[in-house]
Every structure is written in C-alpha cells, then in structure tokens.
Model the fold of this input.
Amino acid sequence: MKPTDLGTYAKNTWCPGCGNFSILNAMRAVLAQLDEEGLPVEEVVLVSGIGCHGKIVDYLNVNSFYSIHGRTLPVATAIKLANPERKVICFSGDGDCLAEGLDHLIFAAKRNIDITLILHDNRVYGLTTGQYTPTSPQGFKGKSTPLGSAEPPMNPPELMLVSGATYIARGYTHGIDLLQRLFKEAILHKGFSFVDVLQVCMTYNNLYESYNKCVYEMKGNDTSSFDEALRLSRSWRYDGPDAPIPLGRFYQVDAPSFEEVFPGFELVDLDEAKREKKISEVLERMI
Amino acid sequence: MMKGVASSASQGQSPKARGEKTTKTLGMKVVEGSYAVAHAVKCCRPDVISAYPITPQTHIVEHLSQMVANGEMDSEFLTVDSEFSALSVLVGSSACGGRCYSSTTSQGLALMYEVLYNVSGMRLPIVMNVANRALGAPLNIWNDQQDSIGARDVGWLQIYVEDVQEAVDATLQAYKIAEDPEIMTPTMVCMDGFILTHVYEPVKLLDQELASEFLPPFAPRSILDTADPKTFGAFADPSTYTEFRYLQFEAQNKALAKIERTAREFEETFGRFYGGLVDSYRADDAEIVIVTLGSVIGTIKDAIDSMRAEGKKVGLVKVRCYRPFPVAALREALKKASIIAVLEKDVSIGGEAGLLADMKAAFYNSSIHPPIIGFTAGLGGRDITINDIEKLVKKAEAAMKGIESEFEFLSLRTEIL
Ligand SMILES: Cc1ncc(C[n+]2csc(CCOP(=O)(O)OP(=O)(O)O)c2C)c(N)n1
Ligand code: SF4
Ligand SMILES: [Mg+2]
Done:
C-alpha cells in the first residue's frame, strides 16, 4: 500500500501552510507502512474531536468516527473495549482535549488504555477563529483575551506523565521524519500513548519562527526514568520565546493496559455463520 | 427585515414615544448583529460575563471582551474551559449579587443543561443570548431553533426575536423582566444564528443614559453575604421540593404581565414596540393565520403581502414570548382564525414539534376551535423561502376542508431519502 492509497475525495479546507498537513502526511505514511508490515488499515479506527484538527479523518481513507467536541476518548475507549484487537487512534485539539474534555484525557492515561492520542497542539481554538486555549502562552492576545490571557499554560506531557500514560512524546509539524517515527512508536506501544504535536496555525497563532529557533531533539535520555521524563518535560513550560524545546520521546514503560484487565467482556466471534445465527437468535427474542 | 420592525413599531407607537425622548436616541448605524447585541449588553452594565466560544455566538462575546479590554465596560470577563464552566461561574457571581451575562448556542447550550436548572432553581436572573443553531449529529453549524426549544422546560424565560433591532431591545428588556423581585427568573433571548448574528443592517444602538434610566442597578434581596449567611442550592426533601417548583411556576405566570408591561415601558422610553407576548401582522380579518417565531417572520410578511394582493386572507401571529407560553394572548389574537398553521424550526422526534404541541394544548379547552396544523422547516440552516410559505398556505387551505396531516416536514427532499 502507498500513502496515496489512503487519500479521499473530500475537499481539503485547511488554510495553506497549516501544520495539520504534516500530521496528515506523516500519519498516511505510517499507516501505509504499518499495512505493509502486517497491520492492515482495516484493523485501524480513527476518532476525531471537533476543530480544524477533526477534519483529518475526512482526508484519511480509514474507518473513522467524528465525536462531539471534547469527547474523542470516551468514544475511543468504548471502541477499544468492544474490540480490543483494533488499533484506535485519536486526533484531538488542545481545546478539544485540554479544555472541554480534559477529564477524559486524564482518565485514559490513568487507565493506561491502549489508545494513541495525537494532540494537534496549535495552542489556539482554530475553528472558532482564534481564542486562547489551555496551552496558549500567558499573555496571549486572542479574540477572547484582547489584553492577553492571564493564565499560565498547561504542560501536556507533564500532565500525562503524572496521570499514568505509558508513552509520551513531542513532535513538531516542521519535522516530518521525527513525526513519523513518533507516530509509529506510539501506535505500536501497548498502553496509552500520547504525542504532543506542536502544530503551526498559520492564521491565528503562527509560532513557526520561535519554534524553529528553539526546538532540539532529545538524544540518549533514559525514557524508562520517570524522574528524567519529568525533568525534561518541565524544561520547557510552553512559555518564554527563547527556552529550548525538547522534541522526541520523553517516556515509555510497560504496564498492564486497561482492556487486558477489564473484566467480563466476551469477544465477539467474527465467524460469519455463527454471527448470523447469533443475530437471528437476538432478533427472535426481541420480535 | 427592518421592514417588519418599521411596520410593527409604527403601528404600536404612542404619541409620547414619538416625542421628546426619542430624539435623544442615537441615529441608525449599519452594524453587525453581534456587535449590536454586544453593545446592548454593554448598556445593561453586567458585572460578570463568562462564555466559551462556539459558532455563531463567538462575535458577540468577542466584541464584549474587546469592550472590557478597552475600558468601555466595567465588567469582569471570565474565559473558561467549557460552557458548563461558563454558566457555573455565573451561578457564583449571580448569587453574590452581580448582574451576569453569557451567550451560547447548540452544543454549548446542551452542555449547559444541568446548570440551566441550577440557575432557574436558585432564582438567579442571568440573561443569555442564544444564537440559535442546529444540534449534531449530523454535525451542522447553521441555524434552526432545536437548541432553545429543546430547553423549554428548564425554567428560563424565552423571548424570540425577529431582527437585530429587536434582539438589541429585547436584551435590555430581559434584564428588567428577569430581575424583577416578583420574577427572579433567568432569561434567554433567542436570535437566529448567522441570520441575525452575522447580518449587517441598520440598527438604532441603545443610548446609555436612557438604558440606565430604564434598567436600574441590580438590587437582589437575597445574596451570599458573610454578614448575613445563607445557603444557595441546598437540599430540599420531598416535603418542600414541590413548593420550590410551584413558586417558579408562579413566577413565570407573573412574568406574562411583566413582559407586556416592560415592552410598553420600553416603548415609552425608546419609541419601539414589537408586541408584548405576541404580535400580529394582517391577522385581524385573516382566515389562515401562520403562527411562528424568529427571523423567518420577515419572509412571511412579504409572502402575506403578495398573497393578500391575490385576495387570499392570510395573516401572521408572532410568538415573541415562548416561555411562559402566552395562552390568553394567543387565544385573543387567534379568535377569528379559520385555521392555524404553525411553522417552526425544530422537531420533537417521536412527537410533533414544540410550538405546535403548545398551540394545540392552548386551544383544546377553549371555546374556539380552529383546526391547528403544523410544519417543521428550516432545519440545519435550510432557507425558508416565500415559495415554502405559499406551499404552506395551500396546504392550510386544503386542510380547511379536512385535515389530512396534522404535522409534516415542509419541502422535504424526498428524492434523496
Ligand atoms: C460543546 C461545544 N462547545 C463549543 C463548540 C465550538 N467549537 C468547535 S471547535 C472548537 C475549538 C477547537 O479548538 P481545538 O480543539 O484546539 O481545535 P483546532 O480548531 O485548533 O484544531 C470549539 C470551541 C462545540 N463544537 N461544542
Ligand atoms: S485556522 Fe489554523 S489550524 Fe485551522 S486550518 Fe487554518 S491554519 Fe490550520
Ligand atoms: Mg487548537
């Protein structure tokens, strides 16, 4: 399978230069590669939130589900529990899963459910045209905060670490090789995997220049060490224009995942004949 | 749309209203609907504003945040993480005696649902503009009125406006009604999303001096006060819970007269009147009367004018106040109708539709029994055209000889089903 096989006929409505294009291209390449390596795309389910980021599922020819604003993870959790064999990947925005749906994010990490969450972290509400979000820098002058937002930003990798996520990384939309590597690692990781993608929003929060100046890739860090991951994730707190911004993998450990320990869920037997028999039994009972 | 206002306003204008005071109001300006409403909110001098962005409400609150930032308003503007938080913030602020404002729509209103009951149950007179929009799934950002009609039982007053001028004027009136010590009930001013929030039309912005005269400072009798401790939202066991609800119910009944009175007082001060609870257009001698809410009224008035020119006796009754439901005013306005055709932008799936059900209930035990039929249209932003209205009237004409269908989806695209 080629990445282009995963395209759709939907008209792309992202702004020219939007970082979402890199996320889309990286994901296409990774899914095509995984398909070649034995993970058929038919086994993958995508769940999106509401926002510019959410449109990504329109542009990927893969099973997908549009949830409502903030609720990617509850939907994804149910899909995973009903069908633990599936690979479930969520695309969520910083507004979507750090504001409206923050509780779900913490619980997904706490449960260590085997879901991958890609955070399109443009640090602004893109679709509603430019208001501050939980990761906007303090003093961000958006349409709802003309004097600058008064709050310090949230630090998503740190939050994920203390909440119990077992794979945590950060990418940048102007570094597609790294993005591909991180996406692949995250998808193959068993347990809750979280990739914070610093996404350039050309229209409402273009941090391209400052990111370009500040990002560096972590090398040789001990990704099994909670303390080291905490230190590195705290070394940049989504503020200050000049602080170095670490990219790459912060943390990865093995731990039992939620669907493994979730009690009493009988797997659906996918044998065609048995399935039909089961359905007619149910129908007969109900009619 | 201004045409509609001009006709209803001039019909109802009192000599005093055309007199001295109106010369004090500003001249008309062409502005965006959201700006006009934000300006009206500014004139209401809220202490606290809190909102979460959602299309097509965003412009209203963005204008407000800019006004606060410019120092034009002495209000606290709280940005929050969700609609649930926005309204919850206002619960606290209002209980402390602050005049509070929010705005939302659709999914946002749905997410507020639990808090909507809290606000009305605690008798906190918060005012909110609902920029009416459809609910998902399927995802849709355009206008219909499913959101607020679906929230008709949450204990808030609901006013539906026809155009931007009325949205402005109703917002000021809403505080006066909500904060009346006899009423103390939160109020939604419902305006069709995009159609009224994003349109640019000539509007008379409120004059601050007149608005302050019309709406005195909020002076609640009961607030959170360390010198006189109280509890809000406490537990009511089965021996008292019913009486809390009864008092809310009574307050809404009292609001009927208050809404009428406030509309008249507004007319005295500003010279504009839209009807109190209901308004009508060419309905006096009409056989077929369309009953509806919101911005579609402009189109219906045009359709009525052309049908009248062909000799059809068609008229309109506009439901301005939907909660409380103005049963007596509607019976009076419709007493000569041969048939009532209800048109609305919502549907009660499994039943019929909100306004239709209320209309049938309002007439069932009365001495007048015109047939009542209903239509849902304009869902998810589909335009309701003059053609649609003419189609509706034809169906109403046929129904006068015998009702075939009590409720239907108007202009359904059967070819894509
Ligand atoms: C309950 C609810 N509130 C508000 C909205 C309006 N809304 C749509 S997208 C969005 C924010 C999107 O921001 P983010 O998640 O950061 O995504 P981006 O557009 O930046 O990709 C909001 C507030 C909604 N759809 N539902
Ligand atoms: S608004 Fe920003 S995030 Fe949305 S499509 Fe445009 S550039 Fe991308
Ligand atoms: Mg965002």
